[in-house]
Amino acid sequence: MRLEVEDFGPGFAPRPRTHTVHVESCTGRGLLLVDTLSSAWGVRPTATGQSVWAELPT
What we know:
Elements: E1 2-7, H1 30-37, E2 40-46, E3 49-55
């Protein structure tokens, strides 16, 4: 099964991040879940922003 989520805002391509006490931003930590649960995932640019996709086992 393929899951895809679009982000309409400008920005940088997402990347997995871990939380440390020195980092106030919480962005990117959801990708650790995506990486763990999916067989593959990636980011593709769209006309209005970007799209993150993941292939999940069925």
